[in-house]
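Continuing from yesterday's entry. The apo prediction looked reasonable, so today I'm repeating it with zinc ion included to see how the binding region is handled. Same sequence as before; SMILES copied from the compound registry.
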Amino acid sequence: MTVRDLIRFLDGWAPPALQQPYDNTGLQVGNPDAEIAGAVVALDLTHAVLDEAKAQGANVVVTHHPLLFKPVKRLAPGPGPSGLAYRLAAEGIAHVAAHTNLDAIDGGVSFALAEDLGLEDVRLLDGFAGQTVKLAVFVPESHAEAVREALAEAGAGRAGRYDACAFATPGTGTFRPLDGADPFVGTVGALERVDEIRLEAEVLRARLPQVLAAMRAAHPYEEVAFDVYPVERVSDSVGFGAIGTLPEAEAGAAFLARVAERLGERALRYAGDLARPVRRVAVCGGAGVDLAGKAMAAGADAYVTADVTYHRFFDVLDGAGRPAMLLVDALHYATERCAERLLADTLAAAFPSTTFRRTEIRTAPVKTFVA
Ligand SMILES: [Zn+2]
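Holo prediction written out below.
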């Protein structure tokens, strides 16, 4: 297994096209052709993680946070990304990141956080608009099933907890092969009528190239007739944040205790009324306060995220100044540490003969002092 195989898998699972414009997901440093001896999975790349990888004989580090965001002017030993990139190159360790693309998929980081907190019936909180297209392809009846299967296999027709969603309508296709054509049915110069099926399925824009390739491979015609058109509806399979319910309602204070205990933190910041029961809970790993409004609109009793600045805590107050929801800042590291489990478990399942080990290092440089 090479670094390229790892990247290809990550690109299929969490397409880079889903990353935010500011992001820099994917290969950070390394040779794609290198054979993977072993990999360490961490939230952040740090010198301690590199030491750990070396001690384990691993030559790949997979993280959620990318190392390289801003232009680096030199690679030399020293602080910051430049020094880490230098070490990676000098010591022959590859570094691959899956960041906002991994936040954006159904089953991504916020879903892992929801699982950590014990939420059930978890769904996407804020679906992206403009990220899906409708594909309609015209297939002779004899090959409709094969094309339908190929589309589903390539990832067309995924919606929430369903896959292989498609619709078929019978009709008649007409065409006349011209000189030089090598038609699957019909003869050159004669108008042909064929019983065809119009197969349609929704496709994530990021997956369209692989779906079209699979469609062409399974379709018998020289010239495949198909349409791709945009879907304006908000996606239910890609977006940010997640929302679910606790098995039973609990008091606000009990809920905060749950969050602290499950995420391994001793102190949380919050705004809200601890006397009010919590049942419906929205989450977003990392800096997600911008979704607080969506969480309230979705009926959340509590919203757990991180990096909430002082003034944003006012956002949860209603017109009479009463808190409409519990807003919890559970710290960036604690809300995204679940990305290590998500990445390590998914990669280990995809590549059973390669070792993907979660780091044992707490990579967060920030700690909480409890007096
Ligand atoms: Zn983050």
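Comparison notes:
- The mean pLDDT is 95.
- The pocket of zinc ion is lined by residues 65, 286, 332, 336 (CB under 6 Å).
Will overlay with the apo model tomorrow.
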